[in-house]
Amino acid sequence: MRTLVAFYSLLLLSAHFHPLQMYETTSDIAETSYSVQPMHPHVDWLTLMTQLATLRDVEFIVTVTLGSLALLGNIVVLIVTAHYKSIGIAEVYMVGLAVCDLSIGVFSSWRAIADRVYTWSTGVFRFCALTYWPVVGLEVAASTTASLIAMALSIDRCLALKFPIKHSELCSVRKAKTLALASGLLSVIIGLNYPLRLSIQDGGITYLNVMPSKFTSLGEDPFFSKLCRYVEFFFRFAIPLSAMIVANTWTMAIIRISDQFRKGIDREARSAMKTPKCLTMTIGLVIIFIITQMPKAAFLFDQMIFYSEHRGTELFETFVIVGNLMTRFNSIVNIIVYLTLNKDFRRTLVKVLNACKTPDIEIFSHPTLSTTKGSENTGRHL
């Protein structure tokens, strides 16, 4: 434990004392969050890099903090969900989101740490170079999977509310698991474009403590790079966010009509009406997901249309950093929403915590063979 604390302390200190590297690079990597070659010749890059250095330090600290919280919070979600008496469709998607958010926390933290520690030694550099872009691809895959699962959850709850009988006939836990697994496999294929198109170069270090990258021979193909950006944008943002907005709006409209109808009936009929589980929680998750993903979606949309024309200004680079942090912040939101809006989750969590405390008490409270024999012998003597 002390070693872990010392390691994180050293990393946090490195955010302040690790010098900015100003080596020349051979190409601009538009897919990274920070350009390493000036786009506009009239921009004062030395001043811009100095201003962004402080913001980069803040981003590093926040990213590692959010990653640690995502790891802890989503492990709790997985443990609590495993103790549910029954697992429904909504719970399957909850587990899928927890796995994705946990992965995002781990992968984003490793990327931030690699950008800081790769200059420590040759061995560390080689390990970071070997894992850097594959980890970026896995982070993108986890984020894409989370978008697709959140879309599936939003549509499922909407259909369960609008068409309850057909939903119970057509939808099942098994189909939900299959859909979640298929989303993950598709997202991994999409994320593979990063290690295929980008690699770490031995000579040259970027301005902003980001590992020096270069395009591979496949990444230099403009058609393939453009295709990868379009595919990622549509499957990670355009399709899921559009579907979630429509399904969420439809769900809230149905709820409003249902509330007006309930006011006109008596209490007995009102109590007999059943609503789908996790409905309020789903709406909360979807709304927060849309808000936190919008800046990153705007950035990728800009990259699709204008490539890197807007890069190189302090305002735009700040917007990119804020968008990245909002995307990572979404990985810690789920447990907050569950604790706030899900009674079953709170009750199960309390039971799990109580179960962790009771074994020590039960050891002393249950009679043992020696104690029972001793009590019987004393009873005979009496």
TrEMBL record:
Keywords: G-protein coupled receptor, Membrane, Receptor, Signal, Transducer, Transmembrane, Transmembrane helix. The keyword Transmembrane applies. Residues 73-338 form the G-protein coupled receptors family 1 profile domain. It holds the Pfam family 7tm_1. GO terms for cellular component: membrane. Belongs to the G-protein coupled receptor 1 family. InterPro entries: GPCR-Ligand_Int, GPCR_Rhodpsn, GPCR_Rhodpsn_7TM. One of its GO terms (molecular function) is G protein-coupled receptor activity. This is G-protein coupled receptors family 1 profile domain-containing protein. It is found in: Membrane. PROSITE patterns: G_PROTEIN_RECEP_F1_1, G_PROTEIN_RECEP_F1_2. Residues 1-22 form the signal peptide. SUPFAM superfamilies: Family A G protein-coupled receptor-like (SSF81321). Gene3D superfamilies: Rhodopsin 7-helix transmembrane proteins (1.20.1070.10). It comes from the Eukaryota. The lineage of its organism: Eukaryota, Metazoa, Spiralia, Lophotrochozoa, Annelida. Its main location: membrane. The chain crosses the membrane at residues 60-80, 92-113, 133-155, 176-194, 233-257, 278-299, 319-341.
